[in-house]
Amino acid sequence: MPHSTEALSPQDILAEVRQFISGAARPSHSTNTVELTRTGLSLLKNVPAAREAVLEYLCNVFSVAVNKHVRQIENNQNLPIPEENTIVEIQTVLSSFISSNAEAWAPIISAWSLDLLGKLSSDYANRGNLKEKSGINDFLQQWMSCRTTRTLIEITAQCLQCLMHSETESCINALLNTSVLHSPHFDWVVAHVGSCFPNTVITRVLTCGLKDFCANVKNPKLNSVVGILGHLAGSHFLDIRTALLDLFKWSLDENLIVDGESRIHKLATVPFLLNLAKLSPMLLKALTTDVLQIYLWALRCSEPNESCFFTMCGTPLVRPDVVPRLALFANDWCRYFSNNPDVLIDSAVELALGCEQGAMQIINILLDTSLSNSNVGYHSVNAAQSVKSVCREILESLLEKLDFRIRSPAANQIPNIPLLNSIKQDLLTVTPLLLHSNPLKVQTAVRLLSLLGTQSPNVLISSATFMLQNAETGFHLAALIRLISDNDVGFASKKSDVKNTLLCHGYFTQVVEHSIREVQYTNAGCREVEQLFKNLTTLLSWENSNKVSCLRSRMITRAIRANLHQISCLLIKTEEFSLANDIAGMLDCLGPFESDHYFPSVELTLKMTRAIIKYFFICIEEDDVINKEKGVKIVCRFLRVLTSYSACARALAIRELLANSMFSDPAKFFGAKVKFEPHVQPTFLLHRNHKQGTSAMLAQRHSSVFHAGVIGHGPRKPPPENNIDKEIITLNSTLLMDVIKACCSNPDPMTGKYSVNSDILNMLSLLLVELVSPDVMYNGLPWPDEEFTKVTVERDLQIRRIFKDAPLLWTLLALTAWYRPALAYCSVLLRGIAATVIANWNKEEGVSLSNVMALGQLLPPPLASIRDILPCLENQQINTIMRECVWAYMHENVPSPALFTRPEGANIAWRDTDSSVPNIRFTETLRLILLANFHKLGPLYSTLFYNEHK
Predict the structure, then answer these.
(1) Full-model pTM
(2) Which residues form the domain of 386?
(3) Left if phi > 0, otherwise alpha if psi is -120 to 50, otherwise beta: which for 754?
(4) Pairing state of beta strands 910-911 and 900-901?
(5) CB atoms within 10 A of CB 69
């Protein structure tokens, strides 16, 4: 290249000009392109006036090369392109120009190369492998494989690199202008150049875009900025975000001294960023990735040494006096939004809806600002109220638009709202707001979670479960109902039958199920479990009052009934009275089983029966008499309903009550003896072997002697005394009788009131015989001859022992005696006690026996008064009366239920005293013994035998 290495004279330069003009103006096949190009490059350096013409000619050279490259692609050819050698020379010369004098050449060459790239990209946009909807990767693949366009890109990159610290803005302006003219075909150039100089390009693009935004408010070139940054976001997202936040920080820095133009730029920065975010979800994500960090920067601009965080509900929030500083610029920002504050608010709301991250930070800032009582930082109280009002307006608008979009989706489409997805990611921040003391925060959380629940029912269920377990006020329980009912109604609006929709979804049923499951398997404290059932009881009472319209579908009752099995299991396992009382209180609030056509299975019925019986014995152990009686009343009410509904529940309830009150640990609360269980320490077999000798254990030796005790633990200790107060035992026995009578009650079909059915008491009598009498032989009603007691002596002693160990049996016999003729079925127990009284001359047991038999009308007058005579007699006289009067009469008069008649409408049967007058042979012995004790029993003798001499 002699033209570029040797100094030319004016004559040579003029000759080259003529040669270049001649060749460029009338090109022909004989024209030497290489020589002509070299001549042009020489003129480009030596003749400034010829630069435009030379660069235009070079454009033709590049265009021809590109055209040939594209044709080869279309024809699947791979032939050498002669112009590419020329282009290599062009690149060499231009690169030397840039290196030698970058300030002069870089702006000119970069503008030329960018303009040429733009034209080539547009002219061949649909040529080669490029289709109408080709993406940036397709453009990059085709053009970077072309030596010509790759050369232009390299030249442009060299210009930017040389002007990194001086005239980069002019290059970026050229890049922006070209992008506007040839977008989107030019985007691949921006992407490649930006990838080479990300920090510089991003920062300069934002700066140029901001200046253009201020100069052209009505028609800014924002799309170019968005396009450039969008292409760089894939690999330089953090750089873009840093540049955006740096620009925002600069706009709020009050410590900078700026001129008039810079002040305008600072005021326009936030509107500029909002408009960018509106056009690009990527930029919106960059701005909202960490909203709190942005606010932290905003505060540090004016107070660099002061912290701005405080904690509420576990989430760091910005101090309220940050917002007043931003509010100072609101009027200036409105200028860029048609001077209309509503447009600015709508833009902010739309941007918030598109936030993929930081949604709850935004909502918490709005909430805290609107609820703040502080006026610090505002010019006046009115300004403070205005800002708080606007924040609440933005919040309400945000929630309304969320509601509209989520509940009005296109056909067969699930709306995808980034804000809602962001909130779902921050559930740990949203959920605590449900129990906040401020109503606005609670209502906001309810609305957000209700909307989330339309897409993710699990979110709704988990949130409602949290509220049900932890709510402690009626307000929060009302919020829970709104959370559930709003969601159901939202779905039901698309259907005709709201009630069917509630039944189909059953969200509250799942909420109760999850709540019970969590308290069972997460070792929740007793207080948390109690709170759960207290809340369920409150909700049931609201539902039963029929004053809450959304509860008229009885969803609370349905939910609890669907989980009765788990609730019953929990009641069976618990030993705490307070918890058991709360569970039973909730069960007591349930409506009749027949309502809503609800019929529990046999398994569930028996499970509930066991649970409520367990609760009864927990109540019996309670020290507070008032709480004990309240609990037993609940048991009675529940068992009346349950046993009248199910015969198997009645049989199980009576059996459980009798067995536990007589033979299990609770028997001590009814006066039974305390069972003695020796405390045996576990020992190892090796230790036991060490205690043994080496000699064999032979019979008749001292080593084979057994003692009255527990082997290895010394003599057997006597059972401890029952130290429970007798008044408490009497009260417990009375309460047990009330519960048994509740199990034996049936409702009146006319009045609905419950009354004891004496026929059911017969089942109680038979069950007593089954539990007490160890022998199934000779359990019939007739009393045999007295001599036959020799056959049943072992059984009779066993019966007496059980009565002695469990005095409650006398109370139970008295109950059956009252509801005649149930006592007749206990004949075997009566004669067993009578036999032991005859054999042991036991005065106390004799009195109790005669008392019960008289109450049951098994002993007619005057034998019924034996109970009043026995305390005054000697032992042998007691033996005589029991044998000659009681036993002999019962042997001749079988205690059959057929002897009793029941008047119409009566619940108790009676025995005709006239037809049951005892024969004189059964009363003569009694009369003679009365005469023998006339000094003590004279008045009684005259009463019993007043007509003896008539």
Answers:
(1) 0.75
(2) 290-455
(3) beta
(4) antiparallel
(5) 23
